[in-house]
User: Fold this.
Amino acid sequence: MHKFPETRDSLLMQVRDPANREAWEQFAQIYRPVIYRIAVARGFQDADAHDLAQQVLIAVATAIGRWEKSEEETRFRNWLSRVTKNAILNAVARRPKDRARGGSSAQIGLDELAECDRATEELLAQEYRREIYLQAADRVRVNVTADTWQAFEWTVVDGREIAEVARQLGRSVGAVYSARSRVMYRLREVVRELENR
Assistant:
């Protein structure tokens, strides 16, 4: 599994200032969807997942001033993972327990969640990468032709055969390879930009 890209130190320093609205918007733009998807993966319904994402962002805003990178190994992702896990635990604990026999899936989830710090961290890493990709894809898609994007999406995302895509798009195999490579190169550039802003 790929390492979770660290949130750059400059953004972390900027979000420590509650008046720095731009930094908070950048931070929320990246992490709100990530936290939302983690909550959904943990069994929360849509509205509850949105509430949880808001609660985590509020918890981060409240506690970010106390977070310090004391050592090089200290990772923001670990801290954010704990904040997210604690918010999920608190939200599940506040819910009334299902009185039906056999327990509730929420209680089972709570029991499992108490033992899965690593799983939450990995889910956070995966969802962070997904959000960065989605943002990069939105930017790149509008700057290439529809056929170029389709060649990339069908061959890379959907895993279709190059020859099949070439036939469907009425292009040569070489043109599909070229289109796919251009999109992948641009996506890498935009991902780097997003991670370094």
Remarks:
- The chain has a mean pLDDT of 76.
